[in-house]
Sequence to fold (118 residues):
Amino acid sequence: MSVKKKVVIHGKSLNLEGIGVSLKLDGNLDVIVIEPGEQNSLEDLNPDVVLFDLAEPHKDLNLALLRKQPGLLLIGVEPSSDEVLVLTGKRNRVLSADELVQLISHRSEETREKKAHG
Fold:
């Protein structure tokens, strides 16, 4: 039996409510909706994914959360443009400036390929 992914919907905008309804239909996801600043902190919930609306400010969604939970995906949705911003705490070890250049080049190539295909 597979383990359900825990998805926290952070906020209650109309856009997020619609997304939440769709995600709850997937039997592999455990969807929880919280208000920003609610007592159930994101750390306590230990989600796999946090969805939030980019049009709303979220003080409790920050880089410290990604450092504490490196496997976490923060996904910001932008209803006006149908775009998403995906942030992850995935880390890469870079020991030299050359390796940093390679990392930047690789990411830039991925971005160009995505723009060309989609």
